[in-house]
Task: structure prediction
Amino acid sequence: MTNYKEEWRKIQGYEGLYEVSNLGRVRSVDRIAYRSDGIKMFRAGKVLKLRRKDNGYIVADLWKNNKGHGKYVHRLVAQAFVPNDYELPAIDHLNCVRDDNRPANLEWVTYSENNRRAAAIRVYSNKKDSSIIKRPENNGKTTRKVVQGKNVETGVIVNFNSMRAAERALGICNGSISQGIKHGWKYGGYEWSLVK
Result:
C-alpha cells in the first residue's frame, strides 16, 4: 500500500461529514458542529477505526443526523473511485481478498455474476464453515443440516454446512434461505434445498 499516493474523496450522502481514500481508509472532515444547547464548536476530522465483520468485509460506522449506519468500505471506495457506467449493483473483489479495498481490486458486476464467481472459486468456504457437517448414522442428534443451492442461471450446485453459512457467504438476508426451502422460493439467484 505504500506505493500508492493516498487520495481522498467525498462519500455519497455524507458530503461535508466523511471522506474515503483510494487505500480503503475513511475519515471524518473538519467541521463546525452545534452542541445540544446551540453553541457552535469546532470538530476536528480524524481517520476512523474500521471493523471487520464475520464475513470478512470491512465496515465503517458513519453518523448523520444522530443516526449511525454501518457502511461497507469496498462499496464506499467503489462509489468514489470506480466508474459504474452500466449502473451495476454489486462489487467484486478481483483478487478474492475481502479486505483489499483498493480501486484497482474492485469491479462493478451484476448479482448473478458476483455469485457465479464466488461459487467458481469457492469463496463461501471460510474457517467457520470449512467442513461439511454430515448427519450421524446412528441415533445421534444433528445440530446443522447441509444446505444445497442450485444456481438458477448456470445450474452449478454448491453445498453449505448450514443455512447461516450460505447466507453469510452470499450476503443474503438472515432467514431468507430457510424461507426459500420452506416455500420453494428463489433467493440470491439459487434454488435451495436440504441435503438428505
